[in-house]
Structures are given as structure tokens and as C-alpha cells.
Amino acid sequence: MTTKRKIIGRLVPCRCFRGEEEVISVLDYSHCSLQQVPKEIFSFERTLEELYLDANQIDELPKQLFNCQALRKLSIPDNDLSNLPTTIASLVNLRELDISKNGIQEFPDNIKCCKCLSVVEASVNPIAKLPEGFTQLLNLTQLFLNDAFLEYLPANFGRLSKLRILELRENHLKTMPKSIHRLSQLERLDLGSNEFTELPEVLEQIHNLKELWMDNNSLQTIPGCIGKLRHLRYLDLAKNRIESLDTDISGCESLEDLLLSSNMLQHLPDTIGMLKKLTTLKVDDNQLTSLPNTIGSLSLLEEFDCSCNELESLPPTIGYLHNLRTFSADENFLVELPREIGNCKNVTVMSLRSNKLEFLPDEIGQMTKLHVLNLSDNRLKNLPYTFTKLKDLAALWLSDNQSKALIPLQTEAHPETKQRVLTNYMFPQQPRHDEDYQSDSDSFNPTLWEEQRQQRMTVAFEFEEKKEEEDNSGKVEINLKRYPTPYPEDLKNMVKSVQNMVGKNQHPLSTNCSGTNMESRKQEQYEPPWPMPPKEAQPTGRRRQLSTNVKSTKNVNDWLDSVLCSKI
């Protein structure tokens, strides 16, 4: 009697014992640089249930592969496939199919024969449309078609009534079929980075929807029908052109994350305070001039970002946000903070960069859990003495150019109120000017750069042609110039002596010379960049020998070259 045992392996194992039958159910050939499907796989077509061929260079699937009737999961992402063969219809037990990151342009219509399919991952393929047969995959629960070329969905797409996750990000969709309302079990819908100009009203009928991505589209308004999505927990409407938010948004009573960044919002409705379960609210990069007082009703809010707006003040009700952990209000026009902000005692990170703050309230010392506080680019003259209570503060940013996270503060008396305040060399803060932040392309000066480049050169050899022949054969013109790089000490002394003697022989001083001749001789006289040694009446020892060599040499440049070569 033979026995069977289940083995998970990368390679085909050998049968070592007679009478024992190996049953291979899982094979993994991922990242093996394969150009074709290994033939050994076909030896297990009866028992193989899972096959992984991820990240290879396979450009074609052989017909024999589809004889693996027991195959339940086929994973071949990140290969070079250009089509999915029609023989895939024979995989009647297939439940999971991953063909992402290939060059597949379409699904064969007979994929409808894979009745058991529940998960299809086909993202990052140039798929332009879905065949009608695709809508017959009635057991499909998860469909991923991100980063494709879809312009529309089949009219009867709603037949996929068991779908729970539908991701269609980065396509060219503009509308959704009316039958989409039949997706009663849909929980996650991602339509981000498409071409929608309005929110599909049909979405209001998907009552079980919990996550909705509509970011990076061209939406201008959010209709009140969105308030009917009472089970919605996550809503991303960032990077659109939304100018206003309907008051019926309050109907999304289960909402926990609301992302409205990078829109054109000028105000928030008061009803936003009715989103009692909200934990994350992002309204940064809009045109808000004020925040509603009802913001204080969001008692569970943990993250609040209102940066890059036109806010001049914060409502006092912000002090009711007792669960707030992260608060950002960068790049606004805030002149002061409400004293009630000190009641946000659970805040660990607060950023108020690039505002017009001139002072901070003493109550900020009650925010004892602060770890990071950014106050750079404001107009503060000092800090309240209550800052000494912030024992957990690990980073206090007072300037964009600050080298350390914490700069020591010292106590001094306020010149007017005589109260104790904290200060250091960074106070008073200076407003930032735009000219201090010019881009490299705006500030680049080719002429100045060339001058600096020349100055960076350490050695320069200049060769100039003589403009006229000199009758005086004793005159020698030196064209070698040495810049900051120094000579070795002994060679340096030798060259100094030679230059001194040559200059003395070439340009004897005369009190009878005219002013013009004097200027001419000054220009011709060689002036080394280092100080000359004091003159000596009689060179002795080694210098006497050098003097003799110079007199017998016609070209001082040649002699200097020979000395340099011999010493170096």
C-alpha cells in the first residue's frame, strides 16, 4: 500500500524510496531568471495546486501548463507576457490569478469558464477593456485593475454581486455603469487618479461601502447623496477642484478618516462637527479663511492638518480636542493662538511654521506631552517661561537653518512686563524674505561662476607671446607663475633667490627715468605672490653656486623646469 505526503518545494524532489509516491502541491520558481516555464512542472499536473513564477522573463505560457486541472492559484506577475491564452478556460478549479506587471492587452472572453475565480490581480497591464465574459465570473470577490487603460466598464458589470474589493486606480474612467448599484457587498472602491468630473450618484446605493478613494480627479462639488453612505469609514477626496462640501456630509456618521487636501475649499460646513467618530481630518492646501466652531465637537480627533490656508485665527473650541495627537497649521496668517490650545494635553507633534505669531500663550506649557514643536519662520520675540514645563520636548525648531533639534534657552526679564521669559540668540525672529530662497536657476551667474572657478585653480601656467623683439639679450622674461600651492621648503628658498637676482639684473633702478618709463618697467617687472627674502651683498655657499648657474643659462624658464623636475 502506497502512502502520499504533501511537499512544498522550489525544485522537483527525487523519489528516494520505492513504494512511496511524492505529491507536489506547491512549486515556487520566483526570481529564477526563467525565460520559459520549466518542463518539470508538467510531471505534477495531477497534484499541483499552487504555482509561483513571479519576477522572471517568461513571455509565453505553454499549453501543457493548462493541463494542471488541480491548479487553484497561478501567480505570474512581473514577467514579459503579452497575452493570456484561451486555454486558460481549462483551469476550472482556479481561484486566484495574478498576472500583474506584464504586457497583457486583454482577457480572453472564455475566461468566463473559470467559474471558481475569486481573486484577479491584473494591475499594470495595457488592458483597454473587459470582455463581456468577464462579468460571468460570479464568484469574484476581489478585482485589482490599477494602472491600466480602461475607459469604461461593461454595462452589466453589476453582475459581479459578490465583489468586496474593487480597485480601478489610474485609468481613464469618466463614468460608472448604472448596474454598479447591484454590488451590494462592495466594501472598498478605489477610483483615484481617473477623469471623473462629478461623484457618481449611483454610489449612494452601495450602502455597505466602507472605503472610497476619489482622489486626484476633477471633482468640483460633493453632492449631498454622499451622506447616505452611513457605513463609510474612509473617504479620500484630495487633489480635486472641490469648492464646497455639502452639509449632508454629516450623514456619514461612521466616518473615521476624511481627506480633503489640495482642493479649493473656502469654508467647512458647521455640520462637520457631527462626524463624531472622526479621527483624521486633513484640509491642508485649500483656501480656508476660518474654521467652524463646531470643530471642537470632534472629540475623537487624533490628527488635524489645516496647513497652507489663509487662516488668521483658530477657534477657541479647538481646546476641546482632548485626543489630538498631531496638529499642523503651517503657512497660514496666524497672529496668535487661543489660550484654550493648552487643553490639548495629548498633542505630541505640533507645527506652526511660517505664520505671523508674535507671542505664545502661557497655557502652552500645559501641553506636557509635546515631543516636537516647530515655530520657525514666525515673528516671536521670546518664549513664555512655562516652556520649562515641557520636559518631554525633544525638538524645538526656531529656524529653518537650525543645526540642532534643541537650542539652549536662557531666562531674562521682559523689557515691558518685567515677567520672566525664555530667549536665545535666535530671537527676535526675522520674517523670511522670498529673495533668500531663490532657486539655483534664478541665482546662477555664469560670469561669477567662471571667476570663482579660476580662483579655485591652484596652479596656473601663463604663456604670452612677445609683442616686440628686445635688443638687450640679457633681458629674460619669466612667464611661470605659482599660486597658493607651496613649494617644498628648500626648493622654495632656491627659487626666491633666483627671482631676486634676475629681477635685480633686469630692472636696475634709475633716478633719471621719466614717469612713463617707470610705469613701463613696473609692468614688466615680475612680482611673485610671496614676500621676497632680504637682499644679501655676497651670496655664499649654495647660493653662490646658484648665481653661477643663472649667469650661464640663457633661458631661466628652462633652468627652473630642470630644478623642479630634479627636486620633485
TrEMBL record:
Chain residue ranges for the region called Disordered: 505-551
Q: Any idea where the Disease resistance R13L4/SHOC-2-like LRR domain is?
A: 225-305
Q: Recorded GO terms, molecular function?
A: protein kinase binding
PROSITE patterns on file:
LRR
Family annotation (InterPro entries):
Leu-rich_rpt, Leu-rich_rpt_typical-subtyp, LRR_dom_sf, LRR_R13L4/SHOC2-like, Synaptic_Scaffolding_LAP-MAGUK
Q: Where is the composition biased (Polar residues)?
A: 505-518
Q: What Gene Ontology terms for biological process does this UniProt record contain?
A: cell-cell adhesion; establishment or maintenance of epithelial cell apical/basal polarity; neurotransmitter receptor transport postsynaptic membrane to endosome; neurotransmitter receptor transport, endosome to postsynaptic membrane; receptor clustering
Answer whether the UniProt record assigns the keyword Coiled coil to this protein. Answer: no
Q: Name one GO cellular component term.
A: postsynaptic membrane
Q: Which UniProt keywords apply?
A: Leucine-rich repeat, Repeat
- Write down what this protein is called: Leucine rich repeat containing 7
**From which lineage does this chain's organism come?**
Eukaryota, Metazoa, Chordata, Craniata, Vertebrata
Q: What gene name is listed for this protein?
A: LRRC7
